[in-house]
Design a protein that fits this description.
disordered N terminus, binds 2-acetamido-2-deoxy-beta-D-glucopyranose
Length: about 800
């Protein structure tokens, strides 16, 4: 028993829970009819347990079921349910004992529906009314005491206590008044003869009948009963039935027969002729039906609409020639025809929809109503294919419009969606509604550069402010979310801020040079640009721009050896025994430019003896052209011009002093050489140098001669030595020496340094083994070897080898 009891208990709770869930809190209220507009019926917020503020956030709204009327509204601030329109109980519910108005209370986010029912309470706002002002009653004088004469009841539109409660008849000696109820439930009154009439005494009389309702204050209506005393023996007509019923489809055409009533009269002749007429009939019914007064046939005379009223009750009176009458009731049931297409109402719509809503977001609520009944009001709703939305049936005939996929404004910025509703009638009716949904922008696209990286080429010595190139980034977002702003990312180039090199126009993306570039200082650099949109937060992307500076022939060749005139005095010794083709000296020049602009060519422009020496056009090597003879002048001067290959080319000249002698002592001029007296230290250096160099040179001459003896073909290769050009002679930042072919040679040269402060700059690299290659390989050094030798990793593609 205990177990059974607890089981019962728990299932009760489950059931309770399910019911509470489905019902979603039906709320019922009651209010009197005819309240002033704005009267408070109830507080919805407190009844639902919501804060009043939430009602506004959830767009609370009341809709009346199947009607455009709006009897109530919600004050969103206070949560009160207010009267919004006159509510007349009699208009809506007629004689129904309870009058309920049903509303849907709609909350969004999430969609929630509550049913509200408002019971409209009657107030005594209608007085009893008789259908006529005067009721004519013709009574035989022979009528017996107790005879009954039917009097149609007064009608009071109110109900219950407010309807007719009692009648009072003006006091008189002949009649009393009783009320009766028919089998069909209709009330009527009877005039009962209490004392026989005598026509000779009184031919007629007028009695006032008052109907009283039970309201407070009480209301009343009156009718005059005009009694005429007859002396003939008459009968009143009698209907074949007390209640006639008929059924009629709505929209029946005019003149459609509905039914026929019939009453017979026992009298003969004119007195037995029965005529029919509607007795109590509301104005509306009078326009809808007509009654043939002779035959009792009822026809359709107006527009019958089921949705307006599905049932009519009319009273028909049959009268004979004397005016004696009786009444019957005709009930006409209207049947529904599928004549109303469903109507789609958009209850709420988020428009525009942000493009980042997640799939499954509710963007709208629609409600579908069909005024027909039963199957004719069963509606199916659908949404066309091919849009990222669907309809989800919600509560009752509500549907949610829900997104099914990710929206992208940059692909589709608006949708036209068509909702179609079809009922289940036969034939079915349908209707459709188009909604225009726009997609609102979200800043979901960063600007994208048209190219992965950009390169700009500019010749050196450009003007500050000149345009280098322009970058473009595209952002498909809307307005400021798609507005691109360009900027430089802070960085350093050669230790200076990048902004001192280039600037970018924030709007156009055009990049300008801020300064004039020098190829010899800087050959290329990279800057990072950012394109940012104006969204909040902004999105950005970066791109690198490489700026390549190209060379211009703006540096003349610079002669390193022999040193420029005026600074020093150099003389080469040429042994008298030198044969034709012997290497005597070499002009060494560099050019800070590169490529063709640094491709140097050498030319002897003037010489003491034009036939004696030649210069290698690209090597700068000065050789004897023929064997030296005794007749040749001892002092030889060559003016050498060094030209680069630029357009236009630049050149430099130098003088080379040659002394044909085997012995320094033979050189008288040397004593005359003017030098700085004060610098006697230098002079002694010079003498030491001259002596050591000539000794050195003589040794070589001997070797030359010896080798020439043995292998005449390769005399000059023995000159491969270990003298290199000191770094101090290179121009600042000069790193491309290898390309010119003028400096990398490992030739031996003899220099007489006489005066000048650069003495100590010369270094004799005795252990120059790495670069002192075997004779055969001298001319085949790879570019990287040179790069290594000069401590630069920048291996130029424009390497030229001029040595032979
Ligand atoms: C939607 O309909 C409107 C008006 O009918 C039209 O102007 C618009 O182009 C349509 N849009 C789409 C995406 O079909
Ligand atoms: C830009 O995007 C933001 C969100 O990222 C949005 O709130 C704003 O409305 C958008 N602006 C425009 C002009 O569409
Ligand atoms: C661009 O570079 C800046 C600075 O280095 C950095 O803060 C930013 O995140 C970069 N943006 C992108 C999209 O890489």
């Amino acid at each position: 028993m205990m177990g059974g009891g607890s089981l019962h208990h728990s299932s009760f709770f489950v059931l309770f829970f399910v019911m509470a869930h489905c019902a979603h809190g039906d709320l019922s209220f009651s209010a009197s009819e005819e309240l002033k507009l704005g009267s408070v019926i109830a507080n919805i917020a407190s009844d639902l347990g919501l804060e009043p503020g939430r009602l506004s956030a959830r767009r609370a709204r009341v809709d009346m079921e199947g009607s455009d009327k709006q009897f109530c509204r919600i004050d969103l601030r206070s949560g009160d349910l207010l009267v919004a329109e006159r509510i007349d109980r009699e208009e809506h519910c007629g004689e129904k004992p309870t009058c309920l108005l049903r509303f849907d209370l709609l909350l969004e986010n999430p969609l929630e529906l509550h049913r509200l029912s408002l019971q409209v309470q009657d107030i005594n706002d209608n007085a009893p009314i008789f259908s006529k002002d005067v009721i004519k009653l013709e009574i035989r004088e022979s009528a017996d005491k107790g005879a009954k004469y039917r009097i149609n009841a007064a009608h009071d539109a109110d109900i219950g206590q407010n309807a007719v409660q009692s009648y009072t008849l003006q006091s008189n000696p002949h009649f009393v008044f009783n009320t009766q109820t028919t089998g069909a439930g209709n009330k009527y009154g009877e005039l009962v003869l209490n004392k026989e009439l005598d026509r000779e005494e009184q031919k007629e009389m007028k009695l006032l009948l008052t109907a009283l309702d039970g309201g407070s204050p009480q209301k009343s209506g009156t009718v005059v009963i005009h009694v005429i005393v007859l002396d003939a023996n008459d009968n009143a007509p009698v209907f074949t039935e007390a209640v006639y019923t008929a059924s009629l489809p709505e929209n029946a055409p005019l003149q459609t027969p509905v039914l026929m009533v019939s009453a017979s009269d026992a009298d003969e002749g004119v007195n037995g002729e029965v005529t029919y007429e509607f007795s109590r009939l509301s104005d509306k019914s009078q326009t809808l039906f007509s009654l043939d007064e002779k035959t009792g046939a009822i026809f359709v005379a107006g527009d019958i609409d089921y949705e307006e009223r599905s049932k009519y009750e009319v009273m028909v009176e049959a009268k004979d020639g004397y005016g004696l009458s009786s009444e019957a009731k005709v009930m006409i049931d209207i049947t529904d025809v599928n004549d109303n297409a469903p109507v789609i109402h958009v209850k709420s719509l988020t428009n525009p929809i942000p493009e980042n809503v997640s799939p499954g977001t509710e963007v709208g609520i629609i409600n579908v109503q069909d005024r027909d009944s039963e199957k004719n009001r069963q509606v199916r709703c659908s949404l066309q294919q091919g849009v990222p939305f669907k309809l989800v049936p919600s509560i009752k005939n509500y549907y949610s419009v829900v997104s099914t996929g990710q929206l992208d404004r940059e692909v589709v910025s608006d949708y036209n969606i068509t909702i179609t509703a079809t009922d289940e009638g036969s034939p079915p009716l349908s209707s459709s509604k188009s909604l225009h949904l726009s997609v609102a922008d979200i800043n979901d696209n960063p600007p994208v550069f048209e190219e992965e990286s950009y390169s700009a080429y500019v010749s050196e010595n450009n003007k500050a402010g000149s345009t280098l190139c322009s970058v473009t980034a595209r952002d498909p977002d809307w307005r400021q979310n798609g507005t691109v702003i360009y900027s430089l990312l802070a960085a350093e180039v050669n230790g200076a801020p990048v902004s001192s090199y280039v600037s970018v126009n924030g709007d156009t993306g055009v990049i300008h040079a801020v300064r004039s570039f020098d190829y010899e200082q800087l050959r290329s650099f990279k800057v990072q640009l950012m394109a940012r949109d104006n969204g909040s937060p902004p999105l950005s992307s970066n791109v690198s721009v490489s700026v390549f500076i190209s060379d211009v022939n703006d540096n003349p060749p610079q002669i390193l050896y022999p040193a420029p005139e005026g600074n020093s005095f150099m003389t080469e010794l040429v042994p008298k025994a030198a044969h034709g083709g012997s290497l005597v000296s070499k002009v060494i020049a560099v050019d800070a430019d590169s490529g063709q602009n640094a491709w140097l060519s050498y030319q002897i422009v003037k010489s003491t003896d034009p036939g004696l020496f030649t210069i290698g056009v690209h090597s700068g090597e000065i050789r004897t052209q023929r064997d030296i003879s005794e007749t040749d002048s001892m002092k030889q001067t060559l003016i050498v011009s060094v030209k680069d290959n630029g357009q236009p080319s630049l050149s430099a000249t130098c003088s080379m002093y040659l002394l044909i002698s085997d012995n320094l002592a033979e050189v008288p001029e040397l004593k005359d050489i003017s030098y700085d007296e004060k610098n006697s230290k230098l002079t002694s250096y010079l003498i030491i140098a001259l002596v050591s160099v000539s000794t050195f040179f003589l040794t070589f001459i001997i070797i030359i001669l010896g080798v020439r003896f043995c292998r005449r073909r390769k005399p000059r290769l023995l000159f491969d030595g270990a003298v290199t050009i000191p770094g101090a002679y290179l121009p600042p930042n000069y790193a491309d020496v290898d390309g010119t072919g003028t400096l990398r040679s490992t030739y031996n040269y003899d220099a007489y340094l006489t005066t000048g402060s650069r003495t100590s700059d010369f270094k004799f690299v005795s252990s120059y083994n790495d670069n002192t290659l075997p004779a055969e390989q001298t001319l085949r050094k790879s570019p990287s070897d040179f790069a290594d030798a000069f401590g630069s990793a920048d291996s130029s593609p424009e390497l030229h080898f001029f040595s032979r």
